[in-house]
Design brief:
There is one protein chain. By secondary structure, this protein is mainly α. It is globular, with a radius of gyration of 23 Å. The chain folds into two domains: 175 residues, no CATH class; 272 residues, no CATH class. The protein is built from 20 helices and no strands. Helix 3 packs antiparallel against helix 4, helix 3 runs parallel beside helix 6 and helix 6 crosses helix 7. The mean pLDDT is 91.
């Protein structure tokens, strides 16, 4: 079920809110059980059989958490439960996400395996990492073990962040499961945040997807330089508004139920270094790898540059693999790693004029995203050829047509990718003006009504991060 669907907006969400706040308002345990059942129903809506994978993950990691806690209380080693938790969770992820790809590689090397057709459960990378976070955070004393499997289930399956993040670490919400405080202020702020994310997804990302999909679909088949660059720009703006919009909706929904999730994006395109851009992009995934991969390997507190480079390499290798079973994601991760090393040790960007310090990480991001978006390395190379003048010419009427028809969402996406909104919000807040507050409320209502009209009309509604 998509957040940007009429079923969610006009049936599922209102029904869940009414039941949560009316008959169950004063009963925390009943609220938690209800949210768990609603979350499993949300996941099962489009994936009725894969909800069994979700339930299996909940049950297995519940027992791993108890095993880790049992060993810790008796001063025993937790190596066995931790290693087994990693093996089973990552093993399940491997089977669903990487087995077909791996068998294809082996067959290419001369093997003759029969490759099964395995459908990918939506969001399996996200809820697998959350399940691992529960076990690892219990081990690190970052959250109390849950004696109730229902509470572990709520943490892993909570529908706002279930299928596309942000990846919520257990330590962030461990106390909130029982002790969160709902308030009208949180609820109203959550509603506004949800609508902002909905607008970014429906009014910006979906419109930009039309340009990006057309351009990438033409790679090697009449793609001109101008349209290749327009498609590449449209894609990174689509990607940002798609994923940050979903994160806004998830954070807003969490606040509506009293949960406070950490931010997942912090205007990455405003960064003045490549490292700064990646610290602001998909923050929950970056911190997950930092806490559970980078730091356990020694982090930056190692005795040689070679070990530090190894640790950063492992993070980017894992990041590329996490995104999918395709050589394009691995190439995307490795190119970013190489550019970060040039920045860190080669002086890339150091001492440059401020404008170029901002421009080069954005250019690197745009170019590496050609790998991220393409179906294969060959298709990516064909797209690069068109971008740098070796395609079907320098310009065409198609570029003019799409610029003419889509200039408004393109312009709006560029404006809102910059930190304009928080500055405007701060300016309005300092004025303490009823008219401005009313104007903001009307603006939010307008965004919701226009977004809802697009959804009801059944406009193009892709979602990139369902693939992960």
């Amino acid at each position: 079920m998509l957040f940007s669907s009429s079923v969610f907006l006009f049936l599922f969400l209102p029904l869940v809110l009414i039941i949560y706040y009316v008959p169950l308002r004063r009963f925390r345990q009943a609220q938690n059980i209800f949210l768990l059942l609603a979350s499993l129903g949300f996941y099962a809506w489009g994936e009725p059989w894969f909800v069994l994978v979700m339930i299996g993950s909940i049950v297995i990691n519940y027992f791993f958490g108890l095993w880790v806690d049992y060993n810790k209380r008796r001063d025993r080693s937790c190596r066995a439960p931790i290693l087994l938790a990693l093996l089973i969770n990552l093993g399940v992820l491997f089977v669903f996400k990487y087995l077909m790809f791996t068998l294809g590689i082996l067959n290419g090397l001369g093997a003759s395996f029969v490759i099964p057709v395995i459908e990918l459960p939506i969001g399996i990378s996200f809820f697998t990492f959350q399940a691992l976070s529960y076990v690892l955070d219990v081990h690190r004393d970052r959250g109390k073990v849950q004696r109730s499997p229902l509470k572990v289930g709520l943490y892993i399956s909570f529908f706002p962040q279930l299928i596309a993040g942000p990846i919520v670490k257990y330590e962030t919400v461990a106390d909130q499961i029982d002790n969160r405080k709902e308030s009208w202020e949180d609820f109203s702020a959550g509603c506004a945040r949800f609508v902002v994310g909905l607008g970014k997804k429906v009014l910006l990302s979906n419109q930009l997807a039309i340009i990006a999909d057309r351009a990438y679909g033409m790679a090697g088949d009449g793609l001109t330089t101008s349209f290749a660059w327009l498609g590449a720009v449209a894609y990174i703006l689509q990607l940002y508004n798609d994923f940050s919009g979903y994160s806004d909706m998830a954070i807003g929904l969490g606040r509506m139920f009293g949960f406070h999730f950490l931010e997942n994006f912090n205007y990455p395109f405003a960064a003045t270094s490549l490292a700064g851009l990646w610290r602001r992009w998909h923050i929950s995934l970056a911190t997950w790898f930092r806490d559970y991969v980078y730091i356990p390997l020694g982090g930056s507190r190692v005795d040689s540059r070679a070990k530090l480079i190894r640790n950063i390499f492992m993070v980017w290798l894992c990041t590329g693999i996490w995104h999918g079973a395709n050589w394009t994601y691995l190439a995307w991760g490795m190119v970013n790693f190489a550019m970060l090393m040039l920045e860190k040790y080669g002086g890339l960007g150091r001492g440059w004029p401020k404008f170029f310090q901002w421009l080069y990480p954005l250019a690197v991001f745009l170019l590496t995203c050609v790998f991220f978006r393409s179906d294969s390395i060959g298709a990516a190379l064909q797209y690069f050829q068109a971008m740098f003048g070796f395609g079907a010419g320098l310009g065409d009427g198609l570029t003019v047509l799409y610029l003419t028809e889509c200039w408004l969402p393109l312009l709006a996406a560029v404006v809102f990718a910059a930190p304009v909104a928080p500055r405007l919000r701060d300016w309005v807040g300092k004025r303490n003006c009823v008219a401005l507050d009313l104007g903001y409320a009307l603006l939010i209502a307008g965004v919701f009504l226009v977004s809802a009209s697009f959804i009801i009309k059944g406009t193009y509604n892709p979602f990139i991060y369902f693939n992960f």
